[in-house]
Amino acid sequence: MKILIGLLVLVVLLVGTVLSLPFLVDLNKYQDQYKPIVEEALNRKVQLQDIRLTIWPRIGATVAGFAVMDDPSFGSGPFASLSSLDVGVKLMPLLSGQVEVEEVTLRNPVITVIKNKNGVLNASTIGRKGAAVPEAPSKAPIPSAEGPLKILALLAVDRVSVDGGKLTYRDQSVAKTTEYVLQDLEVLLRDVRLGQTPNLHFASLVQPYNMPIKLDGTFGPLKDTMDVEAINFQLSVGKTDFTITGKAVDHNATVNVSSPVINTANLPIALPFKKPVEIKNLQLAAEVKGQEAKLNTLSFGLFDGEVKGNGTLVAGSNTPPFNGGVTIKGVQLGPALSTVAETPVSVSGTAGAELSVQGRGFSMPDLTKALQGTGHMAVKDGKIQGVNILQEVVSALKVAGISIGDPKATVFSTIETDLAIKQGVIKLQNLLMDSHDFQATGGGTIGFDQQLNLLVNLNLSQEVSQKLSGASPVVKIAMKEGRLSLPLAITGTAQAPSYGVDVKGLTGKVQEQVKKKVEETVGGLLKGTTKPEDLKREGQELLKGFFGR
Fold it and tell me: Torsion angle of alpha carbons 390, 396, 399, 400, nearest 10°?
């Protein structure tokens, strides 16, 4: 009995001693030893309110009031802070003198990423080991490998989690500061240790769009160089799913993205579309080498057709240079144009195009100044809804009682042209429009401001030409080989085009024919081959043909 009581007293003493350890052991005295190491690794000042030993639910330590201060060039407040940082260690290795971290939990972290007016991120200077915080932050887009993830890998953590908190991105480089927030953060990392392939789960709500996002997958295996040989993720943005694979080695990266269906109405970005667009079977393959980003393959289905592209961009400047090419096949032009703009005149048909471009920057002023390119475009079996080109010709010729086809549409079998882009102007060359009733050839320009300046030559069919000549003697005299040919100018804007027929050119042809006839008649008189009676008769026939009586 005495032995049992003694054992019980011993157990109580041990339990009491263990439970009192958090009060007896002061871990704050080790701040001076470990805090400089963390500050050097992050290249940021670090603040700690309190460090306590924990016994339950696991042995470890709790850091309260942890904050990583911001780059002094951006402000004196914290870049990241959290209410507590809990670190738990494994018991059995600890009894044998080894420390193995089992779990790290960050509670309610608050992180603020800022892009200043010069386009520089405050996160760009994190992890520059041994480097002083510069007065003006670096523009280098890739942080050093001496960052927090490497620290976790070296600590060999079984589980890293984020419980609550938010991440704010504030862009001060635009005229009106914009802000986006990831709130209700949910992060879980498993098997974060060298040689292992961590498993990641991330979920959050994007504001101001109220858009849920979720990311699940693996990356690794982790190395002391922080090279990642394989990345496999499933990303959900609202109702849209993406598959992401790739790798990152020596600051170079490759990435492949695919998605079965993307509806722009479900994306948290503002696009210049009048209505939602559905993109099918997206396939993207890209690589980054230093500051050069190369889009090797881009393909997707759009408006019942297919779009393919490739390109290269070099980062590191406010107006990054780029070049690329686009191939379009089988796209239905009507739905595509109605998505971009609502205009009185619309064009339908099956479109295809090939285009090569190069330029600098992506704002409209930059594109207007630097974008250049060449290409070819063709539209088959379509209709220009909102205008009947032949009816415009009839009106310009002031021919009454003639109606040709649909008064508000022009049907065509082919429209094709070569393109040249330079200084905000698209130049159309070798323009051809083929219709049952006419053929048009010519060219002109379309500005980025949608100003039109096109001049084409209309060569009407024999059927239409005869129909017009029967109602207008001017047309009859101006015809050549049974056809009427005249110039048509298209000006105004894409929203409000204006059509004009060069009637002066037409009357000029009449004058030429009359002049030619007079010269032939006078020549006959001089040569004696034409008699005055013949001259009178031919003159009457000429006037009868001209005036129709």
Answer: 90
